[in-house]
Design a protein that fits this description.
Strand order of the largest sheet of chain A: 1-2-3
Number of strands of chain B: 2
Strand content of chain A: under 5%
Radius of gyration of chain A: 21 Å
Helix content of chain B: over 70%
Shape of chain A: globular
Number of helices of chain A: 21
Largest sheet of chain A: 3 strands, mixed
Number of helices of chain B: 20
Distance between the termini of chain B: 39 Å
Largest interface: A-B, 30 and 29 residues
Strand order of the largest sheet of chain B: 1-2
Shape of chain B: globular
Oligomer: heterodimer
Number of strands of chain A: 3
Radius of gyration of chain B: 21 Å
Order of helices and strands of chain B: HHEEHHHHHHHHHHHHHHHHHH
Strand content of chain B: under 5%
Structural class of chain A: mainly alpha
Helix content of chain A: over 70%
Chain lengths: 494, 488
């Protein structure tokens, strides 16, 4: 079922307008600036969630503006997939923004950070709620370009270099996407996300279009070998921005790939052609390399960034396997990884904030000094490793079953190997923090509430609580939504 | 009030009259300004009403003085002419505002305004001319006025650049004149529509003359439009002119010659020549060169205005590429790019001029940190640069999208890729400027935003970049009908 309602543009437009408002008022009052930034994320979240009942009644909400950008037209679409991802993104964004109101106090140029953070949110929501490729592309560029400002926030030489690399790759990615959009439009006459895919012939041009999408989304999602900007850019950004980049923005690449695979090319076509093999292979390499290189990193934020590369590989693999369970795993992992990686980055940020220690080897005894922060870190890390009943376990379980459905046992082994590597790069760190040498000495420095402001502590704890509890709830609505999103993509494909 | 039925000729007449009145007004600066801007505004209003009429009633044939063709002079306003006239009048009006209220770079404003008015009048006449003789007259007026508004700056470089422009432009004029003479020899007519009807019969008898004529025509207009590799005069000329002149020259003047050439092609020569002669392939090859060479040269420039001038070489290549691909969408894209590039390049030149005027810095390598001191000016510059790169939401994106779609329609995938590569090259030289301006180390130079009157045209152009980027549908009927003139 489909209904038309202009309300679906609100989660995009409200932050977009608020970004301008924040820019206008921020010089007068920093309180107003901070609260408006939080309000933007909250409004976005509520404006998405209010459609819960409509969405659960199998209804897709659309809004079309054909007079904009002819001949393609701008359109928005809220379906299961969009609803799920939009909810996750806006909710995590809200928590990270609350965190940043306290964290950013020590930073400079806050008047630049907040409007651009809200603008990036608007871009991300636009990407998720877009109903066709050109709208997707439009907001994708808005998001990518405004994220540049978040990455180079420190303005150090390292940050500027990382930012420049990010910018060049973003533009290359954007242009490959544009090429693919044009190629699809030329062949099908429209570029709207259509259940079951657009009527495309299997030609060389279609294949080039697929490659263009793979490059464009691959760069964003940090797919090896296009990931080279990611380990540079994520660590240099302020920690809340790293959480947004690693936890949320990477997902838009994977999200785009799902849209394109199932609603542009269509399942039928993807099963005939052999392109999925390339996608699977790249995903496998991404999983392996991301996890392996993470082990060697001593800077905590670089370690987390490489870990993101590996984790995005899971999602790409889930898309590439083309089975229902694998896709459930992929979509669920968008949610799981968003929560896990944001809490890891926020916890790492909290540690850097209060101790200034970026190197993992210096974290001895931190578990006593900052018990809450380290507990959050531990929960998220265990979830990354895949310990049941944490969220990371569920996505791996579904992915592994999906791989078996597709008859690829090798990928199951790869998933297990990757879990082992996750264990290798998280566990010693945790062990060191809680039980390392000199802990007894550090214990005397124990402080109340980790010496952190509540605005930093609460979001971390909230994220960790979701990671810990969602699978224990009698009704796991995240998994339910991921399943429904998958079924809707598969049933219409048949 | 003016009888707008006479708009086609009145636009030119009003501008010319104002050009002659201004020197008579002497030193009364307020009156001079009023006449100057009033003439521009009147031209814009008439152009707008004329465009509406063309859209409603179709092509206008306006016999000047009531004398009918083939002996009388005919002004022939079809959709392409109306569209071009509207773009010219609109952008020229904004640049005129800047010439009045912007930084003063010439000694005699009165003379300068007269020259600008002559130039705009000639350009308006050129896009609407129905016969080759008047077309040539307007070409000469516009060429000389264009040279004069460079030389008027009075610096050594500007005089030298304008002289080089004069020599090459005169060569171009010579080519065009010779070509017109050959056509007259073959057909006995100067009126374009009569030429076409006669050519159907006589073309076969004089194939060599016709070939020579077309060759000279393409080269002549190619020099004036700065089509690669005939662009050598442009970087010096455009970068050494006063700011308002640079904007006029880069934004409008080079394109008028493309418009004139294409109008001769479909009005006088007939579309058959595109099938008979490899003109399209020539355009494709040369515009490919323009896209690459212009960007590569722009990358190594350190002078802000020279960089913008080289970028114009690239952008002219886009317009020729649109016509070279010759599918309806590609032509629409090329025609749209006439407007979009006029808006964004004027924006960039005016913004650069203001930056240079406020800070005295011409070198891009010293722009670091200026963005924080002049946020509005640099924000406008950023908008123009993003449009050049083709970021969606800006005007430049639309024309690139159309040309790329047109390339696929014409089954020439390679040109779609070429456009994307060229966008990347554009990004490679525009983005570092913006990055260093906003995030670079603070320079010691003091800099403040200019006064509002100077900033206003820049902000208006920046808004127009977004406006035409989000609502291209306003121009689409004109552009689509223009494409139908070429591809039926």
């Amino acid at each position: 079922m489909q209904t038309t309602s202009v309300a679906v543009i609100l989660p995009v437009m409200v932050p977009l307008l608020l970004a301008a408002v924040i820019y206008a008022v921020e010089r007068r009052s920093w309180r107003l600036r901070n609260s408006l930034s939080v309000m933007a994320a909250l409004a976005s979240f509520l404006l998405v969630v209010q459609h819960y009942r409509t969405i659960m009644a199998d209804t897709t909400i659309v809004a079309n503006f054909p007079q904009l950008l002819p001949p393609l037209g701008v359109s928005f679409r809220l379906d299961y997939l969009g609803f799920f991802v939009a909810t996750v993104v806006s909710f995590v964004w809200l928590l990270v923004t609350i965190y940043s109101t306290a964290y950013m106090v020590k930073e400079h140029a806050k008047n630049r950070y907040y409007p651009f953070s809200v603008l990036t949110l608007a871009g991300a929501m636009g990407v998720i709620l877009s109903g066709d490729l050109i709208t997707f592309f439009l907001f994708f560029e808005v998001m990518s370009l405004s994220a540049y400002v978040l990455i180079i926030h420190e303005e150090t030489a390292v940050a500027m270099r990382a930012g420049y690399r990010y910018l060049i790759l973003t533009i290359i990615g954007g242009l490959s996407l544009l090429f693919s959009v044009i190629a699809v439009f030329q062949q099908a006459g429209r570029v709207s996300f259509t259940p079951g895919g657009l009527p495309l012939e299997i030609t060389a041009l279609t294949f080039l279009a697929f490659l263009g999408f793979l490059v464009g989304f691959g760069i964003k999602a940090g797919m090896v070998p296009l990931h080279i900007w990611l380990p540079e850019a994520h660590p240099v950004a302020p920690s809340p921005a790293s959480a947004l980049l690693s936890g949320l923005m990477l997902k838009t690449g994977a999200f785009g790939l799902i849209r394109v695979t199932y609603q542009i090319f269509g399942l039928e076509m993807m099963q005939i052609v052999m392109w999925r093999d390339q996608l699977q292979l790249l995903a496998a390499i991404t999983i392996f390399l991301g996890s392996a290189v993470a082990i060697t990193q001593d800077d905590i934020k670089r370690r987390l960034a490489y870990s993101s590369v590996g984790q995005m590989g899971y999602i790409l693999l889930g898309v590439g396997l083309l089975t229902e369970r694998a896709l459930i795993g992929a979509i669920f992992h968008i949610f799981a990884h968003a929560f896990m990686k944001s809490s890891l980055f926020l916890a790492a940020g909290a540690i850097i904030y209060s101790t200034g220690k970026r190197r993992v080897s210096e974290w001895v005894g931190l578990g006593r000094k900052m018990p809450i922060t380290m507990s959050v870190f531990t929960v998220a890390a265990l979830s990354m490793v895949g310990v049941p009943p944490l969220v990371g376990f569920v996505s791996k379980w579904e992915l592994a079953l999906g791989a078996l459905d597709a008859g690829s046992v090798a990928y199951v082994l790869l998933l297990l190997l990757s879990s082992l590597m996750n264990f290798i790069y998280y566990f010693p760190l945790i062990q060191n923090a809680f039980f390392g040498e000199g802990v007894a000495h550090a214990a005397q420095a124990k402080t109340r509430r980790d010496n952190l402001p509540l605005a930093m502590l609460a979001p971390m704890v909230a994220l960790a609580a979701v990671i810990l509890l969602i699978d224990l709830l009698p009704y796991n609505f995240a998994l339910e939504l991921a399943e429904r999103a998958t079924y809707s993509l598969f049933t219409t494909a048949r | 009030m003016l009888n707008l039925g006479h708009a086609p000729v009145l636009i030119v007449v009003v501008l010319l009259l104002a050009a002659f009145i201004i020197p008579l007004l002497g030193k009364r600066q307020g009156v001079v300004n009023a006449v100057f801007l009033g003439a521009g505004a009147a031209a814009f209003i008439m152009s707008l009403s004329m465009t509406m009429r063309v859209l409603a009633e179709g092509t206008l044939h306006y016999p000047v003085g009531g004398w009918a063709a083939p002996y009388g002079i005919v002004v022939l306003v079809d959709v392409f002419a109306a569209y071009s006239s509207l773009v010219l009048a609109m952008v020229a009006l904004i640049i005129s505002w800047f010439a009045v209220y912007g930084p003063r770079e010439v000694r005699h404003n009165g003379v300068y305004f007269t020259l600008i008015l002559l130039l705009t009048a000639a350009m308006q006449g050129m896009v609407m001319a129905g016969d080759l003789f008047n077309l040539f007259v307007f070409i000469e007026i516009s060429s000389l006025a264009a040279i004069a508004i460079i030389a008027i700056k009075g610096t050594k470089e500007s005089v030298e650049a304008s002289f080089r422009y004069l020599v090459l432009s005169a060569l171009g004029s010579g080519g065009v004149l010779f070509s017109i003479a050959l056509i007259f020899m073959i057909t006995g007519h100067l009126n374009m529509e009569y030429i076409r009807t006669t050519l159907i019969v006589t073309a076969e008898q004089y194939p060599l003359n016709l070939l020579t004529s077309i060759g000279l025509m393409v080269v002549g207009f190619g020099v004036k439009a700065a089509l690669f590799p005939m662009h050598v005069w442009l970087p010096d000329a455009h970068s050494n002119a006063p700011t308002a002149s640079s904007a006029l020259l880069s934004g409008l003047v080079v394109k008028v010659y493309i418009i004139a050439l294409m109008r001769i092609a479909y009005l006088a020569l007939g579309l058959e020549i595109f099938a008979l002669l490899p003109i399209r392939h020539l355009f494709l090859a040369l515009s490919t060169g323009a896209l690459m060479v212009g960007s590569v040269f722009a990358m190594v420039q350190d002078n802000a205005k020279r960089l913008l001038a080289f970028s114009t070489v690239t952008q002219v290549g886009y317009i020729f590429l649109g016509f070279g691909l010759f599918s309806p969408r590609a032509i629409e894209g090329g025609v749209l790019h006439i407007l979009n590039h006029a808006v964004m390049k004027s924006l960039l030149f005016l913004a650069a001029g203001v930056i240079i005027h406020q800070t005295g810095i011409k070198k891009l390598s010293q722009f670091n940190g200026l963005g924080r001191k002049m946020p509005l000016t640099f924000a406008a510059f950023t908008v123009g640069a993003m449009s050049m790169v083709g970021i969606p939401g800006t005007a430049g994106f639309i024309s690139k999208l159309y040309i790329a779609l047109g390339a696929l329609d014409a089954d020439m995938l390679v040109f779609a890729v070429l456009i994307l590569v060229s966008s990347l090259l554009n990004a490679a030289y525009y983005f570092p400027i913006i990055i260093s301006a906003f995030f670079g180390k603070d320079s010691e130079k003091e800099a403040v935003e200019p006064r509002l009157a100077m900033l206003a045209p820049i902000l208006v152009l920046a808004l127009m970049v977004f406006f035409f980027g989000l609502f291209p549908s306003l121009m689409v009927p004109l552009v689509q009908q223009t494409a139908l003139l070429f591809v039926r």
